[in-house]
Amino acid sequence: MTEAVVRKKPGMVSVKEMPVLQDGPPPGGFPPVRYARRIPNKGPSAVAIFLTAFGAFSWGMYQVGKGNKIRRELKEEKYAARRAILPMLQAEEDERFVKEWKKYLEEEARIMKDVPGWKVGESVYHSGKWVPPATGELRPDVW
């Protein structure tokens, strides 16, 4: 396709004869370009956002404090119940221990009856200190 057909000017021999077509601004010019920072003018202010966040945080911390107080009261109630029942549990354990200790001494007497000079229930350690009995021997049901 020749330039003559493209530009609709028949009879042109050279490109130099072509009329110059240059793009330009529209009549009246281009609209102004906005290059400033676009800050939205809608929505809550920074102070309102801060106060809302602070209020939500404060309310949450208040709820945490209330929960801690309730949990502390429940914990104290549980400990009070344990303190109240502890003497009874200790008495039962002492009763069981005395019964097992008597069985233990009878068994020791039966086993060591032929050993001269053996004293039933006497400690084999002569350190002068009291040593609590080994409860593992007295509680075969645990092992």
From TrEMBL:
The keyword Mitochondrion applies. Complex I functions in the transfer of electrons from NADH to the respiratory chain. Accessory subunit of the mitochondrial membrane respiratory chain NADH dehydrogenase (Complex I), that is believed not to be involved in catalysis. It is a single-pass membrane protein. It holds the Pfam family GRIM-19. It comes from Elaeis guineensis var. tenera. Keywords: Electron transport, Membrane, Mitochondrion, Mitochondrion inner membrane, Respiratory chain, Transmembrane, Transmembrane helix, Transport. GO terms for cellular component: mitochondrial inner membrane; respiratory chain complex I. Belongs to the complex I NDUFA13 subunit family. The chain crosses the membrane at residues 43-62. It comes from the Eukaryota. InterPro entries: GRIM-19. The gene is LOC105055701. This is NADH dehydrogenase [ubiquinone] 1 alpha subcomplex subunit 13. The keyword Transferase does not apply. It is found in: Mitochondrion inner membrane. PANTHER family: NADH DEHYDROGENASE [UBIQUINONE] 1 ALPHA SUBCOMPLEX SUBUNIT 13 (PTHR12966:SF0), NADH DEHYDROGENASE UBIQUINONE 1 ALPHA SUBCOMPLEX SUBUNIT 13 (PTHR12966).
